[in-house]
């Protein structure tokens, strides 16, 4: 040992510090080139001033009436039908194999069970029942092992399901999640790995939050007692899902308000474990957001350094469109191109001079890779004279048992159904 | 004590190190810095020799304007451009940071002031002649090459103007003209750099079967896996979720799972081989929990220290329970961090745990729960590593790893050596990889005051 130490010292004496790793190579493994991490500074250097023009524009909200249906644009060959109205704050949908539909109502904090028993395409009053209540901000739903899990603000509830759709009294499955704040709608799905994935938005608009579970995708152990931050920097991702073929997890994130008409764009992300998607400091392709102040930069590093370590988005969409839910289409009713593509409900903007969203959008896939996001069902928002008006805030989207597509309007409580008829009525 | 092992090390009590019976003369603890200008050209040299409690400093420099130039030890071991906070602009050698201030005086003073009253790094001015050359040679006890005032892997900076030995922050000594990193002579070490700006690596564990070193962030709870061979680092588990907002002591159990002491979260987390959460064990909610370190024993128990609540916890069958009420033992809790690092003898009979604020090492019998004081003198003792009857103690604020020889029954011990390595910034925990020690450089002092130096790193060097 002494000899080896001595010889190593001789080697080291030959060169300066730079040759140290070479000298060590005899007894210690070679050293890889270190990646340069950001440099914390006593004071972060200033950025140029940035001025923004932002618009609050909430289109005049109109109750749904059947005469407005003609305003909706539906792709050729598709037909739109109304399955139910008067559903209240109709948000997420969960379709069971027997055609039963669980519907969460965020403002009412309850869950309804809808079933078109007589098969007439309508959910009449006798075909609806409330099956759970007193769950503040009930939103995301997922089923596993005969149990329904509901994500509701700070708690994930679990209930036993009966054949008739009724539920047992809710029990706490996991608790102590972040406050709702500005973004209390939780998306939640059991993942292919047997863990429960639930996304918790930020309590605020555009600054770092003290609770590290905010603005994240959490992965929760099957017993509900342990969890990890699967990915972070997600301001408000609600709609997400795994590609039926590739298993890749895609999610749709809502960007910050008050940063102008086009900054930041809405993001479609590939959500991977351990990655940071940049909010509040970066958007899109790791772009530093000029309108976020520096005071809360974690680790006292520059925004540029911080953003370089984050993950960019895969596709962007019009700013402020506000994706709520997203669902893969795996049915056979739609043309073959639609198989394994994705539908997204963009609830619509309130912070853009020309409203965005107010539509169901379609994410096309080519070779199982997302390529574009385009409007699928639109026309809920329109301009009349100088006035913008809207008659629908779309929220939940799900595939029905027959391969048609369901979506909700949480403003008027409408359940819509999109069928492919190929032009046949 | 084997005298031969003194090579390259600072012995406790330098007088004994020079004693008879040496097979080889002990290498003195020394360091050097190549002084560069902002273009990177070497225009000077500084050498540092440890002489008892003081350091002999010799500096030669050229190419400076004639007259006096302020000269200081700066906090960081880097001579890069960096922010000068006074003007919030990048200046040459700003990366060296402010004056080294081990006494936390926050005051610029003369080279003769005590560290309590002035920066430890305040050196005498250097005088440059008409030929642009200057030299200085002096002894100082304000700094050392080891211990709390250790300057290894910090920097020496020569300024443009004289030092008035008074004005904050640097005696009106002006721009930074020369800078050199103080590098220990003849000491082989290897760094494992970490990728983040807030890594503050507190805990470390080694999975020998997979050749992976795990280290976790006290600040964020992020846990990295480092390939011990290649140094490749990947995020193993993102911190921040329930019970995982901080990661302190880490251990790998017989099944390869990683156990995490969650500090102020009051939780112990268990992670699967791929880092997925397996279990989160919460101690009862009470003010100021601080689960600091843990150790599995052969019977399947895991013992957990709590640095603020006088309780030794034990996990059995995935349940955490109070095991030993320390109020009923000689271990007396006081302000600050109490019980910290913990190890077990191979048979699981005894636990050894160090009390950071008192410097006491305790032996706890897992059968009878009897507590015995092994020794004192280990203030700032943080992580422990037991290698046969040798105990290595990471002594964070002292910037050294201490070596203790224990008696056969672990009931008594003697401090034999202190290793500053190549400069350790708050070494908090240790593992053994092959014949080497790997120590974290946690910079935990920078969590509350100052700015950490990146990259954060673990440092590997020969067992001593």
Global geometry of chain B: elongated
Mean pLDDT over all positions of chain A: 92
Strand content of chain A: 35-45%
Query: What Rg of chain B do the Cα atoms give?
Result: 23 Å
Q: Percent of residues of chain A in helical segments?
A: under 10%
What does this structure look like?
The complex is a heterodimer of chains A (425) and B (464). Chain A is mainly beta. Chain A folds into two domains: 31 residues, no CATH class; 362 residues, Neuraminidase, CATH 2.120.10.30. Chain A is 6% helix and 36% strand. Chain B is mostly beta strands. Chain B folds into two domains: 157 residues, Sandwich (Immunoglobulin-like), CATH 2.60.40.200; 274 residues, TolB, C-terminal domain (Neuraminidase), CATH 2.120.10. In chain B, strand 2 and strand 3 form a beta hairpin. Chain B is elongated and about 75 Å long. Chains A and B meet through helix 1, helix 2, strand 13 and strand 14 of A and strand 14 and strand 22 of B.
List keywords for this structure.
heterodimer, A: 425 residues, mainly beta, Neuraminidase, 4-stranded antiparallel sheet, 36% strand, disordered N terminus, B: 464 residues, Immunoglobulin-like, 2 domains, 5-stranded antiparallel sheet, 1 helix, 1% helix, 43% strand, elongated
Task: Give the structure's gist in a few sentences.
Chain A is mainly beta and 425 residues long. Chain A has three helices and 29 strands.
Q: Which SSEs are present, and which pair or pack?
A:
The complex is a heterodimer of chains A (425) and B (464).
Chain A: H1 2-14, H2 20-24, E1 60-61, E2 78-84, E3 90-95, E4 101-105, E5 110-114, E6 128-132, E7 138-144, E8 147-152, E9 155-160, E10 171-174, E11 187-190, E12 196-200, E13 216-220, E14 227-232, E15 237-242, E16 249-253, E17 266-270, E18 282-283, E19 287-288, H3 303-308, E20 315-317, E21 323-329, E22 341-346, E23 359-366, E24 369-377, E25 381-384, E26 387-390, E27 394-399, E28 405-409, E29 414-420
Parallel strand pairs in A: 1-26
Antiparallel strand pairs in A: 2-29, 3-4, 4-5, 5-6, 7-8, 8-9, 9-10, 11-12, 12-13, 13-14, 15-16, 16-17, 17-20, 18-19, 21-22, 22-23, 23-24, 25-26, 27-28, 28-29
Chain B: E1 10-11, H1 14-17, E2 30-36, E3 42-51, E4 54-61, E5 67-69, E6 71-74, E7 82-84, E8 89-91, E9 126-128, E10 134-140, E11 155-159, E12 176-181, E13 183-184, E14 189-193, E15 201-207, E16 212-217, E17 223-227, E18 233-237, E19 250-252, E20 258-261, E21 267-271, E22 277-282, E23 291-296, E24 302-306, E25 311-316, E26 319-325, E27 339-344, E28 350-355, E29 360-365, E30 371-375, E31 381-387, E32 390-395, E33 400-406, E34 413-419, E35 430-433, E36 436-441, E37 457-462
Antiparallel strand pairs in B: 1-34, 2-3, 2-13, 3-4, 4-10, 5-9, 6-11, 7-8, 11-12, 14-37, 15-16, 16-17, 17-18, 19-20, 20-21, 21-22, 23-24, 24-25, 25-26, 27-28, 28-29, 29-30, 31-32, 32-33, 33-34, 35-36, 36-37
């Amino acid at each position: 040992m002494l000899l080896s130490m001595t010889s190593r010292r001789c080697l080291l004496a030959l060169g300066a510090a730079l040759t140290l790793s070479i000298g060590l190579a005899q007894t210690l493994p070679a050293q890889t080139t270190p990646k340069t991490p950001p440099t914390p500074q006593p004071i972060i250097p200033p950025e140029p001033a940035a001025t923004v023009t932002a618009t609050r524009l909430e289109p005049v909200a109109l109750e749904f009436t059947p005469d407005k249906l003609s305003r909706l644009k539906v792709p050729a060959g598709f037909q739109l039908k109304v399955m139910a109205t008067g559903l209240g704050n109709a948000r997420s949908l969960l379709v069971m194999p027997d055609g039963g539909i669980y519907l969460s109502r965020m403002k009412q904090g309850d869950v309804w069970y809808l079933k078109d028993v007589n098969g007439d395409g309508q959910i009449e009053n006798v075909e609806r029942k409330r099956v759970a209540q007193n769950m503040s901000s009930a939103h995301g739903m997922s089923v596993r092992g005969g149990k329904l899990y509901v994500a509701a603000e700070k708690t994930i509830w679990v209930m036993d399901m009966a054949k008739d759709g009724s539920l047992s009294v809710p029990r706490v499955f996991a608790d102590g999640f972040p406050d709702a704040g500005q973004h209390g709608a939780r998306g939640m799905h059991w993942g292919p790995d047997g863990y429960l994935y639930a996304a918790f938005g930020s309590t605020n608009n555009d600054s770092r939050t003290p609770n590290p579970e905010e603005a994240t995708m959490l992965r929760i152990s099957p017993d509900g007692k342990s969890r990890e931050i699967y990915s972070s920097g997600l301001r408000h991702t609600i709609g997400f899902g795994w590609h039926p073929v590739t298993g890749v997890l895609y999610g749709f994130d809502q960007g910050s308000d008050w940063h102008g008409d086009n900054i930041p764009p809405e993001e479609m992300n590939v959500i991977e474990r351990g990655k940071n998607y940049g909010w509040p400091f970066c958007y899109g392709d790791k772009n530093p957001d000029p309108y976020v102040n520096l005071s809360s930069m974690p680790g006292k590093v520059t925004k540029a350094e911080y953003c370089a370590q984050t993950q960019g988005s895969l596709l962007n969409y019009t700013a402020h469109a506000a994706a709520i839910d997203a669902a893969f289409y795996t049915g056979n009713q739609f043309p073959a191109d639609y198989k394994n593509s994705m539908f997204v409900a963009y609830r619509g903007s309130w912070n853009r001079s020309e409203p965005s969203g107010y539509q169901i959008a379609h994410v096309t896939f080519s070779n199982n890779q997302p390529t574009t996001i385009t409007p699928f069902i639109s026309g809920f928002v329109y301009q009349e004279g100088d006035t913008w008006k809207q008659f629908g805030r779309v929220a939940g989207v799900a595939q029905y048992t027959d391969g048609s597509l369901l979506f909700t309007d949480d403003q008027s409580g409408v359940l819509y159904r999109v069928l492919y008829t190929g032009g046949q009525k | 004590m084997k005298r031969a092992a003194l090579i390259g090390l600072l012995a406790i009590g330098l007088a004994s190190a020079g004693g008879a019976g040496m097979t080889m003369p002990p290498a003195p603890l020394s360091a050097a810095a190549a002084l560069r200008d902002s273009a990177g050209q070497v225009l000077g040299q500084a050498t540092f020799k440890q002489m008892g409690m003081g350091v002999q400093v010799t500096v030669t420099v050229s190419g400076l304007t004639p007259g006096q130039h302020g000269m200081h030890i700066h906090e960081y071991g880097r001579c890069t451009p960096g922010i000068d906070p006074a003007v919030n602009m990048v200046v040459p050698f700003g990366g060296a940071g402010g004056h080294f201030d081990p006494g936390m005086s926050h005051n610029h003073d003369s080279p003769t002031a005590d560290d309590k009253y002035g920066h430890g790094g305040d050196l005498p001015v250097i005088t440059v002649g008409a030929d642009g050359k200057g030299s200085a040679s002096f002894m100082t006890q304000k700094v050392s090459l080891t211990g709390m005032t250790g300057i290894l892997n910090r920097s020496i900076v020569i300024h443009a103007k004289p030092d008035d030995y008074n004005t904050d922050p640097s005696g009106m000594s002006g721009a930074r003209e020369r800078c050199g990193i103080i590098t220990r002579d003849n000491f082989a070490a290897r760094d494992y750099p970490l990728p983040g700006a807030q890594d503050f690596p507190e805990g470390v564990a080694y999975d020998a079967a997979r050749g992976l070193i795990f280290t976790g962030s006290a600040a964020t709870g992020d846990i990295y896996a480092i390939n011990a061979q290649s140094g490749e680092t990947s995020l193993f588990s993102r911190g921040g979720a329930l019970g995982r907002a901080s990661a302190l002591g880490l251990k790998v159990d017989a099944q390869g799972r990683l156990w995490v002491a969650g500090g102020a979260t009051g939780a112990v987390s268990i992670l699967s081989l791929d880092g997925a959460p397996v279990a989160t064990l919460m101690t009862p909610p009470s003010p100021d929990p601080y689960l600091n370190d843990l150790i599995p024993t052969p019977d399947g128990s895991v013992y957990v220290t709590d640095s603020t609540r006088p309780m030794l916890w034990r996990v059995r069958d995935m349940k955490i329970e109070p095991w030993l009420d320390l109020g009923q033992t000689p271990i007396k809790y006081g302000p600050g961090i109490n019980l910290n690092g913990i190890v077990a003898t191979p048979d699981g009979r005894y636990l050894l745990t160090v009390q950071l604020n008192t410097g006491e090492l305790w032996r706890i019998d897992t059968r009878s729960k009897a507590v015995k004081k092994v020794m004192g003198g280990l203030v700032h003792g943080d992580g422990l590593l037991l290698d046969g009857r040798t105990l290595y103690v990471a002594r964070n604020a002292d910037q050294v790893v201490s070596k203790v020889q224990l008696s056969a029954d672990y009931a008594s011990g003697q401090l034999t050596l202190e290793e500053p390595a190549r400069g350790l910034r708050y070494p908090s925990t240790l593992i053994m990889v092959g014949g080497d020690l790997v120590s974290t450089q946690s910079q935990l002092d920078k969590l509350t005051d100052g700015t950490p130096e990146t990259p954060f790193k673990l440092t590997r060097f020969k067992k001593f």
